[in-house]
Amino acid sequence: MCGDFNAHHTRWNCKRIDAKCKAIYKYAHCKNLEILAPPTPTRYGPNSATTIDLALTKNFAYRYKIESIPDLASDHNPVILNFDFNIVPLIVKRQKVSTNWDNFKNHLNKNVKIIFPKILNSNDLENEVNKIMSDITNAYNNSSRPLKHHEELYLPPHLRELKTARNRSKKVWQRFRDPASKNLFNRAQARFRNAMSEFNQSMYISQNEQLNIYDGTLWRRTKRLKSKRSEIPQLKNPGTNLPSHTDLEKAEIIADHLESQFTPNDFGDPNTERTVEKSIREFKNEIRTSKLKKVQPSEIICFMKHIKINKAPGIDSITNKMLKNLPLKIILKLTEIFNHMLKFRHFPNCWKTARVLPILKPGKDPTHPVSY
């Protein structure tokens, strides 16, 4: 059910909560309804902008996207609500590329020089780290090939025949370019697509029939279908109490919130603060005067033997499988980099960069950054 409810609530970017909205919100909570609201206002007044056009759904597991379109020359914007009815079957796919790890090692041994550059400061250290990361990524790209179509997914014989007929008619049309060949190719393409759709649907149904409550597969599938990923709505800036519209503004608000969350606590006791500062100064002076034990290549090799390859890579896309296959030449360069990190007491910025995904806490107001 969609319409102009003329109900104001802070959960959909209004500045106040009225009695009508409380009744709608209470009714939706009792009847297990979901209230959908666009992230931007739907009505603009002389000195205000509010969201009063809503939609109510119940037991609707499909993903959606609702948005306010400022296309009409009116104070009331039209609202478009799109549902995604495409259910992608959970077909287990193989990896998209195949890597020859021997070529990966040979490429690094051939293109990376063993000569260690002079690292005089932290900037030189940053450049050397970026260079070795680029060398590893280039070696992986040059040693990997994309899988062919027949390697990505198993197809039954009748689908392979339809695919072969489709490809044959496509070659005929590309050669002669006549309307009759084009018509035959379109028909073959339609037959193959319809057969693939039926095959995917049958695979999806067979997978659902095998679900049960004993191994948890039924609950995992239910959770996946019920999860609806929508964009983060307007966030209120805690400093100005103004809403943010662009993704950059939202990112800055969440970044400020995370920075405040990870700020060290204020002890409030001057004696305690002086004691801590004195301990830190003594620790730093002790590090300057004492000689740190250098990192050895054997330590790095021993560490890489025990890392797990099924972990997600960082923002540099270097996986643990790539680290396990590094040749000795790269291990020696990493050893030199680690020792200079201890010498300059500097950690490279590229290794401190990560991708942060804000997740809304259950039952919290999505317009406040503290809810993520």
Automatic annotation (TrEMBL):
GO terms for molecular function: RNA-directed DNA polymerase activity. Signal peptide: none annotated. It holds the Pfam family Exo_endo_phos_2. InterPro entries: Endo/exonu/phosph_ase_sf, Endo/exonuclease/phosphatase, RdDP_mobile_element. Keywords: Nucleotidyltransferase, RNA-directed DNA polymerase, Transferase. Residues 2-80 form the Endonuclease/exonuclease/phosphatase domain. This is RNA-directed DNA polymerase from mobile element jockey. It comes from Araneus ventricosus. The lineage of its organism: Eukaryota, Metazoa, Ecdysozoa, Arthropoda, Chelicerata. The gene is pol_2017.
